Amino acid sequence: MGTVLILGNGADLDLGLNTSFTSFRCSKYWKQYIEDKDSKDAELTSFLNTKTSGDWCDLESCLVSYGQQLKVKLDEEVELDKKSYIALCKQLHSFLDEAQSANIKDESILLDILRRIKESRKGMIMYTFNYTDLSRIIQRKGIGIEQSPTYIHGSLNSEDELILGIGEDDINSKYFFLHKTARPNYFPTNIVWDLMRANDVIIFGHSLNEIDAPYFKDFFESRSQYNSNRRDDRITIFTKNEESKMKIQHSMKKWGINIMALTSISRLNFICTDEYAEGNAYAIKAYDTFVNCLKGRKVENDRNI
Predict the structure, then answer these.
(1) CA-to-CA distance for 85 and 177, rounded, in angstroms?
(2) Which is the most buried residue in 81, 90, 155, 303, by most CB within 10 A?
(3) What is the distance between the alpha carbons of residues 257 and 147, in angstroms, rounded to a whole number?
(4) What tens digit of pLDDT does each residue of 209-231 get?
(5) How far apart are the C-alpha atoms of 261 and 269, rounded to whole Å?
(6) What is the mean pLDDT of the chain?
(7) Where are the alpha helices (H) located in the chain, listed in sequence order?
(8) What's the CA gap between 32 and 26, in Å, rounded?
(9) In whole angstroms, what is the distance from residue 67 CA to residue 51 CA?
(10) For residue 166, what is the DSSP state?
């Protein structure tokens, strides 16, 4: 199998779409959520307004923490929290819909990667953890990639509600509505299977946090073990900077992944997009190696890049 491309929120940001959780948290839409008549009196609303910060995974972690509370809840309180959750999804949809109308950056690294993949004529499967309409963006920029992304959590180009919630964590049964699988439009994807079969895996702008371990842990475990049939396979992770790179490595360590073995056996390579944009020689060389490998060119000592 050819290339699997996985996109996280950093892909949106690279395109020039201001869809970070921090931006949502500071927007009028968050204020409207806090003041919504159906949610302002809910304990969940107050909890999220007080506890959340940082990345999208922080919001999900807070939903997990709230759902695991041992406090006995009346049915009326649970119903208020459910209305709060629905209001949150509604405001998030409005925020993202506005954000995706921004002008797309011509110097986007992701767009360059998509063009390179098209030129390579390699088969590609694309998964996105974002909600923004990537197909429309690609069409607007005239790239002409035929493959439409598979949306892990739903998308804005669907009339169905966004899939926002928690994964496999155990929570109070009254709060099962917080599970992603409880959403009526939830459907499983082949992401785990496709990762396992792929020869070339590209991960762009995904934090690979602990919450997403079910999608990635088995893949990284398998690729850190020697397999003579996979000696030419590659993994390339595009991340913002050295700080975000270390966070990803920290997550891998917590999953029990041997990063040294993974780097050696599967040619794991990190490319920091900030450093590449600033003209860092190492980042440029790493990107050139990545491009040459996409073209199928033999790269001397590429395991050491």
Answers:
(1) 9
(2) 81
(3) 31
(4) 888 888 999 999 999 998 877 77
(5) 12
(6) 89
(7) 9-15, 21-25, 28-35, 43-51, 56-67, 75-99, 109-120, 134-140, 191-197, 213-223, 242-254, 259-266, 273-277, 281-294
(8) 11
(9) 14
(10) B
pLDDT, tens digit, for every residue of 15-45?
Answer: 999 999 999 999 999 999 999 888 889 999 9
> How would you label 13-37 residue by residue, b for 16+ Cβ within 10 Å and e otherwise?
bbbebebbbeebbebebbeebbebe
Which tens digit of pLDDT belongs to each residue from 81-104? 999 999 999 999 999 999 998 889
The interaxial angle of helices 28-35 and 75-99, nearest 10 deg, is 160
- Residue closest to 236 by CA, chosen among 277, 274, 199: 199
Q: Is 274 helix (H, G, I), strand (E, B) or coil?
A: helix
Polymer length of the chain: 305
The pTM (predicted TM-score) of the whole model is 0.92
190 three-state secondary structure: coil
- Are the CB atoms for 188 and 164 separated by under 8 Å? no
pLDDT of residue 300: 53
Region of 31 please: left (phi>0), alpha (psi -120 to 50) or beta.
alpha
Taking the C-alpha atoms of residue 69 and residue 302, their distance in angstroms, rounded to an integer, is 50
Residue 116 corresponds to which amino acid? R
